[in-house]
Amino acid sequence: MSNKESLIALKDIGVTYNSGGKNEVAAITDINLQIKSREFIAVLGPSGCGKSTLLNVLAGFVKPSCGDALMNGKPITAPNFQRGVMFQTPVLYPWLSVKENVEFGLKMRNFDKKGRSKLSDKYLKDVELFEFKNHKPYELSGGMRQRAALARALASSPSIILLDEPFGALDAFTKINMQILTRTVWSMDKSAFFLITHDVDEALSLATRALVMSKRPGKIIKEFNIEFTYHINETVSDKIRFSKEYISLREEILSLIYRQTSDESGYVI
Ligand SMILES: Nc1ncnc2c1ncn2[C@@H]1O[C@H](COP(=O)(O)OP(=O)(O)OP(=O)(O)O)[C@@H](O)[C@H]1O
Ligand SMILES: [Mg+2]
């Protein structure tokens, strides 16, 4: 794939924190990755392997120690509204209403009141939070706060949304609802998604491509194209999760990750 076709291109990216100091940590190395528009990428790998570091490079929060990070052919040097970010703990301003939170980035970009309102209404409806638009974040449940954060990320019409374990702290039912919502939003929206997760089922049922990373310093050791997401969207059912193909891919990915964390135990997944 040429750089022209890809939304984002990472070339030989490496990040070493505190380089040369006694706390030097090589977090990621030799990362080569091209992300196309509208792709849904899931990243899996052992804890501490550099997944968040990779996301932070894409976001523009961390400057790579080597290599090139490009978006639409231009270097990523700082955060930008074209790359929305969502974390495990939703970062909402407590003194602003849900609607004002969703509109915050638009206001910074000088959208007028009417334009802001139209966009926030649309995305609050999409995440089923419209009736709570005048509530403050402390009046919402954890899942609702995550939905507000998703609406805020979407309202800026970013080319890509970067999600760092966004559903990791939610209870099982809320998590499933958020996954359904994310899949629906992705299929309706124009943004690409880049999702870090520890949950292989989440990766297999949301992504169109899964990347598995090695232990630190993290490299991409294998990638899989995934068709299940399309199937789930078309059939409005996740029965595919009981298919032979799904179970065997799930096992392959789990055993790859497990091998990274424990070479010696002899335990077979
Ligand atoms: N700002 C930082 N300064 C120094 N070291 C850091 C910094 N951020 C991360 N690291 C180190 O880089 C390595 C990779 O961390 P990172 O958070 O990217 O891993 P991760 O794969 O996201 O882990 P987890 O799955 O536990 O979230 C770790 O050893 C961590 O201690
Ligand atoms: Mg992390």
What does it look like?
It contains 8 helices and 10 strands. It has 269 residues and is of the alpha/beta class. Helix 2 (98-108) crosses helix 3 (113-126), helix 2 (98-108) packs parallel to helix 4 (142-155) and helix 3 crosses helix 4 (142-155). The longest helix has 18 residues, at 244-261. The protein has a single domain (37-63, 77-261), classed as P-loop containing nucleotide triphosphate hydrolases (Rossmann fold), CATH 3.40.50.300. The mean pLDDT is 92. Strand 7, helix 5 and strand 8 (192-196) form a beta-alpha-beta unit. Bound molecules: adenosine-5'-triphosphate and magnesium ion (MG). Adenosine-5'-triphosphate is lined by residues 17-18, 25, 27, 45, 47-53, 216.
Count every beta strand, where a strand is a DSSP E run of 2 or more residues. 10
Structural class call reads alpha/beta
CATH architecture: 3-Layer(aba) Sandwich
Order of helices and strands: EEEHEEEHHHEHEHEEHH
CATH class term: Alpha Beta
Topology record:
Elements lengths: L7 E10 L7 E11 L4 E5 L6 H9 L6 E6 L2 E2 L7 E4 L11 H11 L4 H14 L15 H14 L4 E5 L7 H17 L3 E5 L3 H7 L2 E5 L6 E6 L2 H8 L8 H18 L8
